[in-house]
Write a structure and sequence with these properties.
Largest sheet: 9 strands, antiparallel
Keywords: ATP-binding, Nucleotide-binding, Purine biosynthesis
InterPro entries: ATP-grasp (IPR011761), ATP-grasp_carboxylate-amine (IPR003135), ATP_grasp_subdomain_1 (IPR013815), PreATP-grasp_dom_sf (IPR016185), PurK_C (IPR040686), Rudment_hybrid_motif (IPR011054)
Number of domains: 3
Shape: globular
Distance between the termini: 45 Å
Number of helices: 11
Protein name: Phosphoribosylaminoimidazole carboxylase
Low-confidence stretches: none
Order of helices and strands: EHEEHEHHHEHEEHEEEEEHEEHHEEEH
Bound molecules: adenosine-5'-triphosphate, magnesium ion
CATH superfamily of the largest domain: ATP-grasp fold, B domain
Organism: Aliidiomarina sedimenti
CATH topology of the largest domain: D-amino Acid Aminotransferase, Chain A, domain 1
Pfam families: ATP-grasp, PurK_C
Helix content: 25-40%
């Protein structure tokens, strides 16, 4: 099949590789310039986006922050109903959908104006996170307020956070953060990876521990139930990730949805090394009608993001580590690569992270 991917960053490239590996033809669109790019190449093709759309049997995306012209392309050649999926890019609609489908999530309220934000903050005794309704990622466009620590609401906070629509969400005292990455095909079959633990620094994913965390067993079933109800409702086709907070311990542990990413996801990058079929393969299988594997053969893996640095100190890695470099200019806080390493020891995985983090991650101030 001919596959067109909107976006040519690292996720687009990894999707492109998976498409080619299965014998499909794949082109990427640089969504900033509308140039059409081959996979793993720097020079655009002499083809415009209209011709590429015409060429494609199916269109998919690496990110869901799309301009209206790109939304129109998806409406014509995307397998899932585009409007359903794009509703997830708005935090208020995303939270409303969780409520509608009874997917447990943190208590929240929407605000439309600075005054409404101020009223929300005045009413609550809880520590909260304020999130802009649109456009935030890697912890950007988020603010925190704790009435116990600071009885005044800083005017700067109101000014910045109240500049656009958003939500006020209770700060969750979680045991850990986990995510479920999986895929659904057009027949409604579902194929999910095991839940993995995600550790964030300043709102950015630092590392993922797959098969290295003892999670109460019932959580996998709860997560997959949420996944099925959500993707069935959306009639979603492809790979999708749900980020959760785990609250409580042992048999009383439960999941709260933090957010949903209707695409391949950073917390699924470990599957490139630790699974017989990775998250990009699953996406391509779903959108081209190939069956899912009967079982995913996974191995314990740690994934460390490389953030904001122009090179990584290779001599420190274990020799069997598996590095991915995205070919992007380094800026503090920008993800430029990741390193996967298979180990069955949580202690060794955490020691690897501790040792590598100082040279591998430069966050913004
Ligand atoms: P992403 O890059 O994953 O899309 P994002 O910018 O959309 O991130 P969130 O996932 O909403 O942001 O938040 C980033 C991180 O901030 C979370 O993973 C979590 O560590 C912390 N955080 C967000 N909301 C809350 C909350 N309500 N309670 C506690 N921590 C939170
Ligand atoms: Mg997000
Ligand atoms: Mg997130």
């Amino acid at each position: 099949m001919n596959i067109l991917i909107l976006g040519n960053g690292q996720l687009g490239q990894m999707l492109g590789r998976a498409a080619i590996h299965y014998g499909h033809a794949c082109l990427l669109v640089d969504t900033k310039t509308d140039q059409v790019m081959p996979v793993a190449a720097y020079e655009p093709l002499p083809m415009d986006i209209a011709a590429a759309t015409e060429w494609a049997d199916v269109v998919s995306w690496e990110h869901e922050q799309l301009a209206p012209a790109h939304v129109a392309i998806c409406k014509a050649k995307f397998l899932s109903p585009t409007d359903n999926i794009l509703a997830l890019t708005d935090r208020e609609l995303e939270k409303s959908l969780c409520d509608e489908l009874a997917l447990a999530t943190s208590p929240w309220q929407a605000f439309k104006t600075r005054d409404e934000l101020q009223a929300c903050l005045q009413q609550t005794q809880n520590a909260v996170v304020i999130k802009a309704a649109q456009g935030g990622y890697d912890g950007r466009s988020q603010w925190r307020h704790n009435p116990q620590a600071d009885s005044n609401i800083a005017s700067e906070l109101l000014q910045q956070a109240g500049a656009q629509r958003g939500i006020v969400e209770d700060m969750i005292d979680f045991t850990c953060e986990v995510s479920l990455v999986g895929a659904r095909n057009a027949q409604g079959d579902i194929c999910c990876f095991p839940l993995v633990e995600n550790v964030h620094r300043q709102g950015i994913l630092s590392h993922t521990l797959a098969g290295l965390t003892e999670l109460p067993e019932h959580l996998q079933a709860q997560a997959e139930d949420f996944f099925k109800r959500l993707t069935d409702h959306l009639q979603y086709v492809g790979t999708l990730a749900i980020e959760f907070f785990v609250v409580g311990e042992a048999s009383s542990a439960r999941l709260l949805v933090n957010e949903v990413a209707p695409r391949v996801h950073n917390s699924g990058h470990w599957t490139l090394t630790g699974s017989s079929c990775d998250q990009f393969d699953l996406h391509i299988r779903a959108i081209t009608g190939m069956p899912f594997p009967a079982a995913l053969n996974t191995q314990a893996t740690v994934m460390l993001n490389v953030i904001g640095v122009s090179q990584i100190a290779e001599h420190l890695w274990p020799s069997d580590a598996d590095p991915y470099w995205y070919g992007k200019d380094a800026r503090p806080g920008r993800k430029v690569g990741h390193i996967n390493w298979r180990t069955t020891s949580r202690g060794e995985a955490l020691a690897f992270v501790d040792r590598e983090q100082p040279q591998a991650q430069q966050l913004a101030d």
